[in-house]
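Known limitations

Structure tokens in this collection are predictions and should be treated as such. Users comparing against experimental data should check residue numbering before alignment. To illustrate the layout, the record for TFIIB-type domain-containing protein is reproduced below. The input appears on top and the generated tokens appear beneath it.
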Amino acid sequence: MEKDSGFCSDCKAYTDVVLDHRSGDTICTECGLVLEERARSDPITDNGVLTVNISNDNKKAVSSVLPRLHKTLRNPDKSLHIAFESLGVMADGLALVATIRDHAKELYEKADNRKFCRGRNCDAIMAACLFLACQEKGFPRTLKEISTVANGASRKEISRMKELLKKILEVDSKTTNVGDLSRRCCSRIGMANQDMKAVLETLNKSEEVDVRRSPQSTLAAVMYMIAQLSNDKSTRDLTLQDVSQAADVAVATTEKAYKDLYPYASRIIPNWFVKLEALKKLCVP
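Generated tokens:
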């Protein structure tokens, strides 16, 4: 056998590998995964068990690999099963329903079948599959939320994998609608249904004014406006930081968006919610 190094998709790292000249297989010495298969049409077996002739120089390096190698060969989908388990853990971390979790697994399996996962950050790919599954099933999550369960994969990595997956899988996912997020974000801070309705209507009206802020920062600013005008004292007592945290936006970002929207308050906040004179209660930015 000839020793070398190569990238193992199971170990997710470059490891020592050995080339079995007799079978033509390249084998990872860490986990026993067959990295490259060039086996002969008549595999070498002994009563159905794989045998490999190993030179004395390589016996020590490979002796601990063979039991795991047999296990891996008996279960060629081992790496896919591990990915599914990881996806399940990620989904549970976000309290996602089974339909989203299962759809994310379908997307990952399609990507794996197209050899997309080889040599790439699998955690970022799994997180991107979750992101797309959430969008397609109508329960969107932000990249920031997804990244909290992505085992260290950054939002930038997840976003890049998301765009690549959309192309290779021909996924026609829509841009996250801020209206879809509003009810969930409002629920986090205990807003009543009437307040939530006012937030959504204000968001829709805000699209008519020339405020160039991200949808999520606009949502945070609108939530803060409505919170100040609410009939519920506990909602009125919410701070800018409380609202920003609920919307997954930095406080400074919410402040800037609020400052931009404030001049249009009488135009975007529905008059059924508060009368014009009540807008004086809003904090002046």
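For this record: The first strand starts at residue 2 and ends at 8. DSSP finds 14 helices and six strands in the chain. Please report discrepancies through the issue tracker.
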